[in-house]
Amino acid sequence: MAEVKKVLVPDIGSFEDIPVIEIMVKPGDNVQAEDPLIVLESDKATVEVPSPYSGTIREIILQIGAKVSKDSEILTMEVISVAKDEEKTPESQPSGSPSEPQPVQTGMAKLNQPEATPVVKSASTTAAKPVAPPSLLPKLDQEVGQHGKIIPHASPSVRRFSRELGVDLNRVVGTGPKLRILKEDVQAFVKQVLAGEHSTGSSLNLLPWPHVDFAKFGPIELKSLSRIRQISGANLHRNWAMIPHVTQFDEADITDLEALRKTHNETRKNDGTKLTILAFLIKAVTAALKKFPEFNASLDNSTAESQLIIKHYYHLGFAVDTPNGLVVPVIRDADQKGVISIAKELARLSSLAREGKLMPNDMQGASFTISSLGGIGGTGFTPIINAPEVAILGISRASLQPVYQNEKFVPRLMLPLSLSYDHRVVDGAAAARFTAHLASILTDMRLALF
Predict the structure, then answer these.
(1) Which residue of the set 198, 245, 264, 423 is catalytic?
(2) Catalytic site residue 423?
(3) Where are its TM segments located (predicted)?
(4) What is the pLDDT of residues 176-200, one digit of tens each?
(5) Is the model's pLDDT at 109 over the cut of 90?
(6) With contact defined as beta carbons under 8 Å apart, do 366 and 328 qualify?
């Protein structure tokens, strides 16, 4: 006979008020034990809460964005059959209370219990201490395992599936939300290995990465990477390996532009809008993209014959350095905005980025990206292209340099430009013309009007 039961949030360690970022079921859905119900995310990890029973979802009690702790109500469900692990608890059931119900050990519990747990003995111990029973969920601060190894982002059922197939999840690229590894990703990886598309080592046949015990040389400290750095790191690695980068270096004379900027900020300092060089750069780059549309494009390799997708919109991304890593908000329709409007939008998005309040759509849809290190320093660098874009502009710190004009040297404020481009789409001559045209616009912003 069917029974309606409430499903509660299991033990999530010492964490409280963890936000719900995804609800993976809806009323009427039939689920099996260990199927994911919701996804929780702290500032250090993302975990799925599995179903302890098999049955039909009756009512969803919480909503996306709700904050939960241990024993918070998730939903009610009509239980068809109790999970097998609930019926088999002889090892975890205390001998003195055989009738006392035990918590269901789902796949999330197994994630905390490795197949082979090494026992570390100290000089003063003669026997291993008993291992504490695992909780229903992995601790939300266990994003980095022993020896600083990053734990792949996957559900317990996917981890179990990968172990059965002998697949190292560290080599699988996830396609789920926030790059979570799905069962289909593991299956696709196995197919690629069988087809010879993956070698047992690096696809470039490089020597394996050295594993060094740094502790034997001196004191060390393990520091986990933020979620943003983990995700961006994987993207940057892919972009650098798959895109043939070439970087064109140039300089722009911004002496008059800087004088204009300072004059404006001094005369309009009470209206709350501060012009930056980046605001002028976005306007100038937009004008250059209109003249050289192949830089405002993406390469489509999905068909037998590659095609270039020319974009007739101008959404410019700009890199923002935050405590958790680099993020790239997007100024939309930059061609339809004036410099002051762009400056206001830059200030708004930069503030949201540093506060960690950017929405996903604030970072989507860019057709070209600018990475500015001018406020820090440097004379040039090679920015990595943000796929699927085909170019990215790097800006370093401007400096006064002697420039020969009218048969004499005069001090001019020169801005270093570093344009990385996809050599499959853009050749060197086009890149040189692009930076030369951009430099001329920055020297005389009136050219951005044409």
Answers:
(1) 423
(2) yes
(3) none
(4) 776 778 888 888 887 776 665 554 4
(5) no
(6) yes
131 within a domain of the structure (yes/no): no
The rounded distance, in Å, linking the Cα atoms of 241 and 364 is 22
- Cβ pair 12, 137 in contact under 8 A: yes
- Here the CATH number for the domain that contains residue 264 is 3.30.559.10
Residue 436 lies in a domain: yes
Task: Report the C-alpha gap between 246 and 281 in whole angstroms.
Answer: 21
Rounded to 5 degrees, what are φ and ψ at 234?
-65, -40
Contacts for 354 with CB less than 8 Å, ≥ 6 apart = 320, 322, 323
In this predicted structure, what is the pLDDT of residue 110? Answer: 38
Residue range 66-86: mean pLDDT, rounded: 77
What end-to-end distance do the CA atoms of the chain give, in Å? 77
Q: Quick one: 400 and 323 in the same domain?
A: yes
Phi-psi category of 147—alpha, beta or left, where left has phi over 0 and alpha has psi -120 to 50? Answer: left
Looking at residue 129, its pLDDT comes to 38
Same domain, 186 and 283: no
Q: How many CB atoms lie within 10 A of CB 436?
A: 14
Question: Is a pLDDT exceeding 50 seen at residue 123?
Answer: no
| 3-class secondary-structure state, position 308 | strand
- Structural element, H or E, at residue 46: strand 46-50
What is the average pLDDT across 278-291?
A: 97
Contact indicator for 33, 84 with CB cutoff of 8 Å: yes
Sorted by sequence, the CB contacts under 8 Å of residue 2 that are 6+ apart come out as 55, 78, 79, 80
3-class secondary structure, 283: helix
How high is the mean pLDDT of the chain?
Answer: 81
Three-state SS string across 332-371, please? CCHHHCCHHHHHHHHHHHHHHHHCCCCCHHHHCCCCEEEE
Largest CA distance in the chain: 100
Q: Which residues pair with 138 in a beta bridge?
A: none
What is the structure's pLDDT at 151? 64
pLDDT at position 120 is 42
